[in-house]
Amino acid sequence: MNFVKFNPRLWFLLGFIGCCSLLAAGAYMQFVAELEPCPLCISQRLAILATGVIFLFAALHNKAHKAYALGAAVSALIGAGISARHVWLQHLPPDQVPECSPGLEYVFRHFPLTETIKLMLTGTGECSQIEGIFLGLTVPAWTLLAFLILAVFSLLTIRLQAKADESRI
Predict the structure, then answer these.
(1) How far is residue 155's CA from residue 169's CA, in Å, rounded to a whole number?
(2) What cystine linkages occur within this chain (predicted)?
């Protein structure tokens, strides 16, 4: 006997809350701990935001669960790719680290949009700096782990929905 019925709306809402928690942690690190985010950190936050918005729409819409789950998983995996690049940059030998760029405010004002996007997705020298370690992992490594969990969490909705549909038959 199945006492718990799978509810995709609740599942997607939990994913949205998870993304909000990640964004709140980033805001805390920036505004309270005063850790200035690098271009890759900002790109990762945008990927978390995009994933969270997809989760929110899925929870509100309550249809097309598979499409929303795939969309959230793709968004999370894009974020995981950005985080993996960030982790890679942090593990480069000092002589292979790319040059630091001017601040993002300056870049947004004086560089073309394509150059700004390229800078935000590839990272610069300041992205290789390790600002803090928690339980042996850097913040980008934790973010990579969070993105992978979000992707699995999202794809799991497809499997759980299929099992729920099977049990109704």
Answers:
(1) 22
(2) 38-41
